[in-house]
Design brief:
The chain is of the alpha/beta class. The chain is built from 11 helices and 20 strands. The strands form 3 sheets. It has a 9-stranded mixed beta sheet, with helices on one face. Strands 7-8-9-10-11-12-13 form a 7-stranded mixed beta sheet. Helix 2 runs parallel beside helix 4. The protein is globular, with a radius of gyration of 21 Å. The termini are far apart.
Length: about 350
């Protein structure tokens, strides 16, 4: 009887693991490498990063997905979380975090200062304090090691934002030469601040801001990031229309391959610092890229100016398409357009 039970448990374990493992991809982290799991929590965000036996969880999704997240963490071999990072205090990003921290020993908790007085957020912060977890105020420019990888906080760069999404912590995770940019729900205001603050935002894998909404992943920002792969975390047939067609069009102009959780389920990227292999769990759609071999930014993503009106536009803006060729001018950056005295279109806000 015991043998039968053991066999049944083994079969169940293999079945569960297989349901969370992309087809055709080796998800084991290579020596001196990193594995990034974009866990499908539908209309929310949750990313598990592992390198050198160290684990970091970025967001958790809503509380209804905490059991799912914990199951994937268990099957991924998580025994302790070196870092937990909540990008910003919206429940689709932190709702399940208290339950997860209850289940796993956590060394450090990173969050940004906001004026949020949400009851559940307050409970989470109190729980972190009561568990004596080291609390870290997110500060742009700070870098932390995670096994063979490291991550640097790029944003938020300001304060007093009218939209809480712009308080989102943005991090660049680097392993060897491979770079992953995770932006939470940062919108165009935060993106433009980063463009002004940093000379280099280049990344190989880009976690699309705000679930791929039209008010993030601006043309100017995408030009600088120039990702080979973009990941969108969203639910099937969600009421927000995520990802927006505008964002998908910009990524298409850039030649970026898009991986969506609503189509592919959880998405896993594995890197040894020199190559990146990425795939979705629900559909065999694996791709491998050698770091450093991506294409240059095409002129199709240039910002478009009107020499007559002295306004500049996103390349997919309807107004840009109506500009007479003799009045048309292109800019390779937002700064270039502003420096030449052009003002941004009030419609597309490039």
């Amino acid at each position: 009887m015991k043998k039968i039970l053991c066999v049944i448990l083994a079969v169940i374990t293999v079945a569960l693991y297989g349901a969370c493992t992309p087809k055709g991809i080796d998800v084991s982290t290579p020596p001196s490498g990193m594995t990034v799991r974009f866990i499908n929590v539908e209309q929310g965000d949750c990313t598990l990063i592992e390198s050198g036996g160290k684990y970091m969880l970025v967001d958790s999704g809503e509380s209804t997905y905490s059991a799912t997240v914990k199951d994937i963490m268990r099957m991924s071999g998580v025994d302790k979380l070196t870092y937990v990072l909540v990008t910003h205090p919206h429940s689709d990003h932190f709702g399940g975090m208290r339950s997860i921290i209850k289940a796993y020993d956590t060394e450090n908790f990173i969050a940004a200062k906001t004026e949020c007085d949400d009851v559940e957020w307050t409970k989470l912060l109190k729980f972190v304090h009561d568990k004596d977890i080291n609390y870290i105020d997110a500060a742009a420019g700070e870098t932390y090691e995670l096994g063979d990888a490291a991550f640097t906080i790029l944003a938020p760069l300001g304060s007093g934002y009218k939209d809480d999404n712009n308080f989102s912590i943005v991090i660049m995770v680097k392993c060897g030469d491979a770079k992953f940019l995770l932006t939470g729900d940062a919108k165009r205001e935060s993106e433009y601040e980063m463009l002004s603050a940093y000379e280099n935002l280049d990344a190989d894998v880009y976690k699309c801001g705000h679930h791929g909404s039209s008010d993030s992943s601006t043309a100017s920002f995408l030009r600088e990031v120039n990702p080979v792969y973009a990941v969108v975390s969203c639910a099937k047939h969600n009421s927000y229309g995520h990802p927006s067609q505008e964002t998908l069009d910009r990524l298409s102009l850039l030649g970026t391959k898009v991986y969506r959780t609503d189509i592919l389920g959880s998405i896993i990227a594995v890197t040894d610092g020199k190559t990146i292999t990425i795939s979705g769990e629900a559909k065999a759609d694996s791709s491998t890229y050698t770091v450093g071999e991506k294409n240059t930014v095409p002129s199709a993503l240039d910002l478009v100016g009107n020499v007559k009106s002295k306004r500049f536009h996103d390349p997919i803006c309807s107004s840009a398409k109506e500009i007479n060729e003799k009045n048309r001018i292109s800019f390779t950056s937002r700064k270039e357009a502003l420096d030449q005295g052009y003002t941004p279109c009030s419609q597309c806000q490039p």
